Every structure is written in structure tokens, then in C-alpha cells.
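User: Good morning. I'm curious how 2-acetamido-2-deoxy-beta-D-glucopyranose would be positioned relative to this chain. Could you predict the structure with it bound?
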Amino acid sequence: MFRFDSLTVKHPKKNPLALRMLVLMFVLVCGVYICAVCLKQIGGHATVGLLSFSVAERPCDVTDIDPSEKPYVHFPKPETFSREECACNPVRYFAILSTQRSGSGWFETLLNSHMNISSNGEIFSVKVRRSNMSTIVETLDKIYNLDWFTSASKNECTAAVGLKWMLNQGLMQHHEEIVEYFNSKGVSAIFLFRQNLLRRMISILANSFDQNAKLLNGTHKSHVHSTHEAEILASYKPVVNTSLLIPNLRQVEDLVNKSMEYFKSTRHIILYYEDIINNQTKLVDVQNFLRVPLQELSSRQVKIHKGSLSSQVENWGEIEKTLKGTHYQSYLHEDYKL
Ligand SMILES: *[C@@H]1O[C@H](CO)[C@@H](O)[C@H](O)[C@H]1NC(C)=O
Ligand SMILES: *[C@@H]1O[C@H](CO)[C@@H](O)[C@H](O)[C@H]1NC(C)=O
Ligand SMILES: *[C@@H]1O[C@H](CO)[C@@H](O)[C@H](O)[C@H]1NC(C)=O
Ligand SMILES: *[C@@H]1O[C@H](CO)[C@@H](O)[C@H](O)[C@H]1NC(C)=O
Ligand SMILES: *[C@@H]1O[C@H](CO)[C@@H](O)[C@H](O)[C@H]1NC(C)=O
Ligand SMILES: *[C@@H]1O[C@H](CO)[C@@H](O)[C@H](O)[C@H]1NC(C)=O
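Assistant: Good morning! Here's the predicted structure, ligand included:
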């Protein structure tokens, strides 16, 4: 640079054309040289950048993952935080497909007591999120990329992420596209239903009564954490409209059957609330299904309706008469003891 300046300053006027050409040549050569140096430096930086980029983006090692498992294994890169040391811990996607008052709230608290499971609640209870398939996909993508924040969101070491999804929240309506999404993204379905749909009906009647009555100090609660609260809620005994009983039970049974038919091509497990209550091994099955390390799962929730079904309604005699001899008479029998 210094030599270049002194040259051009020194000789501008007295020189003939040849000398001017020489200076011009010199300037050109210098220019090209400077450019070359600059380019080399930029290139150098770019190479360094590329190197660190490829270190961060290096695909995670999947050699010890069984080939049949690969479609279900993911390494999400959240936009909102870094997975840090767990960036290469595989993550599985799941959805709990259920109906209201089937124990899915309780089941979800059990799952969320596992350090590596994050189940984000009833995301699609908000109507705008299930307006159409594009809003559904957008919502699911965000959940499965670990970018959805709820109290259940875990940390960078989440190994299974999902939500609970009621059949009447767009799931049946858009079943074809949702099955396609589940199968292309490797989402596993956990069906959770009640075996005894009569118990479920009583739970629905009591819960909707409480929406207005608000028995617990003027607040409505669908789930409780103390036996005292559970006793207060269970003190209300609904009257079941027996002329609607069988059609209602059939409608729910039909819905449940259809959902299992629609989603049968999806990797799935079928759980019944009663089985989870009766048999702790079911929670081991679920953890194996989600391929998470086995842990003791716990929930602070307390069951509201305990004891015999006959003591939970006003018109048990009428209900018995209606169901005896029908497809639904098994619902009259005790199915679990607490
Ligand atoms: C889907 O619903 C959202 C929200 O209601 C709306 O903004 C969007 O235009 C809809 N998209 C399609 C394709 O209908
Ligand atoms: C589960 O979480 C712990 C603690 O955050 C982490 O060390 C572990 O690697 C995680 N396990 C899996 C299977 O991701
Ligand atoms: C209602 O509120 C009182 C006073 O705060 C409290 O002692 C009682 O336990 C509450 N009852 C229930 C059912 O939450
Ligand atoms: C039971 O349902 C039927 C059909 O909807 C209705 O006509 C009847 O009034 C209901 N009975 C009671 C006691 O609510
Ligand atoms: C639902 O499926 C069960 C078992 O396959 C069957 O017994 C029942 O009749 C079905 N119910 C309806 C309403 O389709
Ligand atoms: C409990 O569940 C396990 C796993 O699903 C099953 O193998 C076992 O037979 C069940 N036990 C009882 C008593 O039903």
C-alpha cells in the first residue's frame, strides 16, 4: 500500500503514456493481489465457519438403533433452546387418544412424573388449533420439535414428547390426514379408554353438574388432589336418563371402535383405565412402548368416584332394569376394588 501511494503520487504529471501504462499495470496487479489476499482471508473464515457448522450439525449416531425402530426415532432441533448434551438422545413422538372422563388426566400426570417424558395436555381443546389440517399440522410440528411450552414441557433430555387428544377434538373429523401425518412422522398412538362406559357416563354427569354447582368452595374442579375434595365431589349422585342410556352407550362404543379402526395402521398400544388401576405392570408396558428407561411413576391425583357403582347414582334400580339382558349388562358388575 505504501509503495503504491508513493509511486502514484511521485510520477503523475511528467510521465509519457508508456509510463502511465506501467503505473496502470502496477495498480491493476496490486489490485488483483489485494483482492486475492482478501478473498483468501474470507475463504479462510468461510472454511472455519463450515467446519464448526458441520461439527454442530453432524448427524447423530444411529448405528445402535434397530432398523425397525428408525422410523420412530427423532433428533429434534428446537428453535427456542438448545438440547445441549442430549442433542443426540433419541426422541419418540406419541399422542394419547382418548375420550373425556377416561382417566387421561390422571394418566398424563403419571407419564409426566417420568424425568424423560413430556405430555403437554389437551392442546386441541382450543378450537382455533384444530380449525383445519394446516393449523393441526403446525401445532403438532411445534410440539414434536419441542418448541411448545406448557407446565409439562421438560428439558433438553426429553426422550418422549406428546399430547393428549380427545376423539371429538378434530381427530375423527380429519382422521385420514392425521393417520398420514402419524405414519410419515413416526408418531405412536396410545389409546386410553374406559372399559365400563357406564362409569364414564356417571363421571361426565357429575363433572358437568359441578361446572355449575362448583362444590369446592365455589371453584369447579375436574381432578382433585385430596380425599376430602374427592368425597365432596362424589357426594353428588346424578340421575341417569334411562331412555337415553342405551343409545348413549352405543354411540360412545361406536366412536371408540371407529377410532381404533381408523388408526389401526399407526404404531399403537391399547390401554384401559381399569387395567391401569388393577395392574401396575401396565405402566411398565407403556414405558417399554415409549422406549424410555423404566421408572416408578406416580400421581398426586385422587380418584373421585370410589366404591360400588350402585351407590353413585340416584336411580340404580332403574339402570339395572334397563341394562339387564343387553350387550351392556357387564357394566353393572364391579370391575375394580379400591
Ligand atoms: C385454517 O384456519 C386458520 C385459523 O382459523 C386460518 O387462518 C387459515 O386461513 C385456515 N387455512 C385453510 C387452508 O383453510
Ligand atoms: C433422561 O434424562 C436424564 C436427565 O435429564 C438424562 O441424563 C438422560 O440421558 C435422559 N435419558 C434419555 C433416554 O434421554
Ligand atoms: C374451603 O376453604 C376453606 C377456607 O379457606 C378451607 O379450610 C377448606 O378446606 C376449603 N374446602 C375445600 C373443599 O377446598
Ligand atoms: C330423557 O330423555 C328424553 C329424550 O331426550 C326426554 O324426552 C326426557 O324428558 C328425559 N327425561 C328426563 C327425566 O330428563
Ligand atoms: C365395538 O367393538 C366390539 C368389539 O369388537 C363389539 O363387540 C361391539 O359390538 C362394537 N360396538 C359397536 C357399537 O359397534
Ligand atoms: C398385568 O399386565 C401384564 C402386562 O400387560 C400382563 O402380562 C399380566 O397378565 C397382567 N396381570 C393381571 C393379573 O391381569
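The chain has one domain: 70-332. The two ends are 90 Å apart (CA to CA).
Let me know if you'd like a different ligand tried.
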